[in-house]
Design a protein that fits this description.
Tetramer of two alpha and two beta subunits. Its EC number is 6.1.1.20. A seven-stranded mixed beta sheet has the order 28-32-33-39-38-37-36. A five-stranded antiparallel beta sheet has the order 5-4-3-6-11, with no helix packed on it. By secondary structure, the chain is of the alpha+beta class. The protein contains 21 helices and 45 strands. The protein starts with a strand and ends with a strand. It folds into six domains: about 1-35 and about 165-190, Phenylalanyl-tRNA Synthetase, Chain B, domain 1, CATH 3.30.56; about 45-155, Nucleic acid-binding proteins (OB fold (Dihydrolipoamide Acetyltransferase, E2P), Beta Barrel); about 200-400, 3-Layer(bba) Sandwich (Phenylalanyl-tRNA Synthetase, Chain B, domain 3), CATH 3.50.40.10; about 405-470, Phenylalanyl-tRNA Synthetase, Chain B, domain 1 (2-Layer Sandwich); about 495-690, Bira Bifunctional Protein, Domain 2 (BirA Bifunctional Protein, domain 2); about 705-800, Alpha-Beta Plaits (2-Layer Sandwich), CATH 3.30.70.380.
């Protein structure tokens, strides 16, 4: 929000305050002044007249001039291409301090120069507000400019100071200069006098204008015909205020529409009356076509966009920009005024998609007070009559209503002091409500206040308390030490488990990642172990950030793809983050492996990132957190064969409940994500948290020697090796003691000397007792039982 000292001075007397004092007090009241800007800068300036101008004898682009500054004539060398005799100009005298430095007497290529003829750019004027001619040369003043005037900024209307105020989302009312003036008056304790314009639009004769809406996105539309106007230059005060707001003056009629928007916060649009066939305007949606807007650019309309139409043809993009075919021209004789309320979400979506951040769209997006449309129409009619010679005014036509209901709130002095911890008296509080124009009524310790229509942020007693402390000063709050219960600082069980997982996987060679929570529709559709009913943002930053993710892997694959594209092949990453759906939030654990997980070139050691490595990472994690291998199983994945390779992936089960998936990426999905031959997994981490973990038990290390026996079988290639291991463990007892301490599969072979439908597996079994040294006959008895069980249950053939 930009507002200038001159603008505030129209409503109140601030002559005794510096711009810095005003900024400090406004900031202290909760409206942060982010910067102070002066329209122009420079000292020791004067208006002069060029008496003579001739080429520099030693330069092909410089000119020597003699300039009358009122009390003397100065020799000045000037490099501007547009300097000429007879011009009125701005002269910086020796000693003048400009944004670019200090001006000094000197010689330029042998010619004396006692000052500088200035351009507005050299005086610090914003180049965006200047024409190309003004930017390329010195500023040539009108012939009525008084020679010798030592305040050229005042003559040009550049003697103004701008406050750049950062508004909080709940104070969009201050985008209107009238409301900001009332707010500043309350803060600075000044009497505010706004222009008297109420009811100015209540004049007019019969009209043929018809306005309507076929969409619910336009609850109110006001229209008014001004039959005759005069297009001419705007008054000086209007041009100065527009310039202070960063707008260029065009003509009196267009400037009035802009100044009314800045004053009331209500965007409005003026249409050339002759361009509106049959004086019929309808607000509609459902268009899917190209449209040329006021800026001459062609935009494509979509069905969800709100459009102003005439004869079923677009004449404006509602709340954003009018059309090129109905704009105000120098030849315009009459106009139709539009003031309306539009759905702010729809305006935001359209403006973002079309990349049109206009002053109108910004105000609609942030919210406009309910009565702003009628206020703006009154003010516009008043200014058109005064500055555009408006005649043949017709009555106002209205579609719908604003739905405004006045709000009155009550509270007691005790309520306010108890909430704030203060001891304000009744008069102080009433004075605050008076300054805010809340029209307070105080009786028996109770306030009844009537909230102005523009203060849409005031909803309850807490808001009233906030207004009181805001204006009386936060320094009035008493200083007290907080009273807090002593709590033990420690991690809960879930936090401990999170830390354990992160430490473990980092130790094993993976890198911890943190990817975006917001994802695109494509990533949402490719969720792995995803939650039901994903959440879509009402106003996403972009299409790439439209959904709250329900799965981590699609985002993590982006990390791998990014690194692969930069020739980094060994990418092993994991992420532990929340995912969310409409039913709630869950924490997931995911990892992606590619290349080598570990490598020591000196020892010629490599650990490839393959399926078995991924399986080992999961088994290591489960063992580390107290979930025994007996409770864990891996079954063939038949459920998600879109993202996982159908023959190289598995479901992960604990106590026969699926908690995740592991496997090689599907070739088609790998092509879509640019992630070739990666191993990936995603687990429901909250399910791991909820699973009962085994307690740690300590047992003495056996003092008796262990014995290892190897055996090899040929079995059906579809037989899972886990079944063989399970049979071995079931036959591990001898005299009620389990004497098998470990079973290790060290080879699986398919190929020569083995049938195509078979495979050979080799295992190593470790025998050990806690009570005695095992004898050969004891080991042999258990070993024979194992052999017989495997041959019977697995139809296995023992290899010699």
């Amino acid at each position: 929000m930009r507002i200038s000292r001159k603008w505030l001075s129209q409503y109140m007397d601030v002559s005794d305050l510096s711009i810095e004092e005003m900024a400090d007090r406004i900031t202290s009241a909760g409206l942060e002044v982010e910067g102070i800007e002066r329209l122009a800068q420079g000292t020791n300036l004067v208006i002069g007249q060029v008496e003579e101008c001739y080429p520099h004898p030693d330069s092909d682009h410089l000119n020597c001039t003699k300039v009358n500054v009122g009390d003397e004539i100065l020799d000045i060398v000037c490099g501007a291409p547009n300097v000429a005799a007879g011009q009125k100009v701005i002269v910086a005298l020796p000693g003048a301090k400009l944004p670019g430095g200090e001006i000094k007497k000197g010689k330029i290529r042998g010619q004396v120069s006692n000052g500088m003829i200035c351009s507005l750019v050299e005086l610090g004027v914003d180049p965006h507000s200047l024409s190309e001619e003004q930017k390329s040369g010195i500023e040539v003043l009108d012939q009525d400019a008084p020679v010798g005037n030592k305040d050229p900024f005042a003559y040009l209307g550049l003697d103004d100071e701008i406050l750049e105020i950062g508004l909080t989302p709940n104070r969009s009312d201050c985008l209107a200069a009238f409301n900001m003036g009332l707010e500043a008056g309350a803060i600075l304790k000044r009497e505010v006098k706004l222009p008297e314009y109420q009811g100015a639009a209540n004049v007019g004769g019969p009209t043929k204008l018809h306005v309507s809406s076929t969409t619910e996105k336009c609850p109110l539309f006001l229209g008014k015909v001004i039959g005759e106007i005069t297009i001419k230059e705007s008054p000086k005060w209007m041009k100065e205020l527009l310039a202070a707001s960063g707008m260029k003056s065009i003509n009196n009629v267009v400037d009035i529409s802009n100044i009314v928007m800045l004053e009331t916060g209500q965007p409005m649009h003026f249409y050339d009356k002759d361009a509106i066939v049959n004086q019929e305007i309808t607000v509609a949606s459902g268009f899917d076509e190209d449209y040329v807007a006021l800026d001459g650019v062609t935009y494509h309309l979509l069905p969800e966009d709100i459009v102003i139409t005439n004869q079923s043809k677009p004449i404006g993009i509602a709340g954003i920009m009018g059309g090129d075919d109905s704009k105000i021209l120098d030849t315009t004789k009459g106009l139709i005024i539009e003031c309306a309320i539009f759905d702010h979400v729809s305006i935001r979506n359209t403006a973002r998609r079309l990349n049109l951040a206009t002053e109108s769209s910004i105000r609609y997006q942030k919210g406009i007070e309910p009565l702003a449309a009628s206020k703006a129409l009154d003010r516009a009619v008043q200014l058109l009559i005064e500055y555009a010679d408006a005649k043949m005014i017709e009555e106002t036509v209205q579609y719908g209503d604003s739905g405004y209901t006045p709000i009155s709130l009550s509270c007691t002095l005790k309520d306010i002091n108890d909430r704030l911890g203060t001891d304000f008296n009744a008069e102080e509080v009433k004075d605050v409500f008076d300054r805010l124009h809340f029209e307070p009524e105080y009786e028996d310790g109770k306030y009844m206040v009537h909230i102005p229509s523009y203060r849409t942020d005031i909803e309850g007693k807490a808001d009233l308390s906030e207004e009181v402390i805001r204006l009386l000063g936060y320094d009035r709050l008493p200083s007290t030490l907080p009273l807090m219960e002593m709590t033990e600082g420690k991690l809960n069980e879930k936090q401990k488990l999170i830390r354990t997982v992160r430490n473990l996987y980092c130790q094993l060679g993976l890198q911890d990642c943190l990817t975006y929570t917001l994802v695109s529709t494509q990533k949402k559709d490719n969720a792995i172990l995803g939650l039901q009913d994903p959440i879509q943002l009402a106003s996403p930053m972009s299409e790439e950030r439209r959904w709250i993710r329900t799965s981590i892997l699609p985002s993590l694959l982006d990390v791998v793809s990014y690194n692969h594209a930069r020739t980094i092949k060994d990418v092993n990453v994991f992420e532990l983050s929340n995912v969310a759906g409409t039913q709630g939030t869950r924490m997931h654990l995911a990892f992606v492996l590619s290349g080598l997980l570990q490598q020591t070139r000196w020892l010629q050691y490599e650990l490839p990132s393959d399926f078995y490595t991924g399986k080992g990472l999961i088994e290591t994690l489960f063992d580390h957190i107290g979930i025994s291998a007996a409770r864990v199983s891996f079954e063939a994945n038949t459920e998600d064969v879109v993202h996982f390779h159908p023959y190289q992936s598995a479901k992960i089960l604990i106590d026969k409940k699926c908690i995740g998936y592991l496997g090689k990426i599907h070739p088609q999905y790998a092509k879509e994500t640019d992630c070739k031959d990666v191993i990936m997994a995603e687990l429901d981490f909250d399910a791991l948290v909820d699973i009962k973990k085994a307690k740690i038990k300590f047992a003495p290390v056996s003092k008796y020697p262990s014995v290892q026996r190897d055996l090899a079988f040929v079995i059906d290639r579809n037989m899972p090796v886990k079944k063989v291991v399970s049979i071995i463990n079931k036959n591990a007892r001898y005299n009620k003691e389990e004497i098998i301490r470990n079973v290790e599969v060290f080879d699986v072979y398919q190929g020569e000397h083995v049938a195509k439908d078979e495979k050979s597996i080799a295992l190593s079994i470790t025998f050990q007792s806690d009570t005695h040294t095992l004898k050969d006959e004891e080991i042999n008895e258990v070993f024979e039982n194992i052999l017989q069980a495997i041959q019977t249950e697995c139809d296995a053939t023992l290899r010699s």
